[in-house]
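To: structure subgroup
Subject: Chain for Friday's discussion

All,

I'm putting the inputs and outputs inline so they're searchable in the archive.
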Amino acid sequence: MKLSDQEIGNLLSLKRHERPPEGYMDDFLREFHQRRREEAMEERGLARQWKQFVQWLTEPGMAKWAYGGGVAYAAVLAIVMTAPKASETESLVPAAIDHRVVAPAPVIPQSQLDELDLRPGSEGSLGEQEF
């Protein structure tokens, strides 16, 4: 049923004078909040959390993707840090330890400055020492 502009105007002029009874808005708001509380009480556990998660994903905003990326990065990092390395799992048998004491090689004191030619004629073109 398609109404003409004249019929729509007549309906609007009739509705303009109608008013809801006193206290209707207060009762409406109270009933609305009561229904919302009852719905929230019915949903418990994983179903409620899943609904909140899906609602969070459908809301616009870029911050949630940054949070999700950060959580994914942290999860991958935790897995990599806690996973055993291949070298740790291969060497199950400990190697034999050699307890021999090796004496250090004898040090012959030698003056290296005595071997340098520090005469002025031995300098290079830029003043550096030639060896």
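Points worth raising on Friday:
The mean pLDDT is 78.
The longest helix spans residues 63-82.

D.
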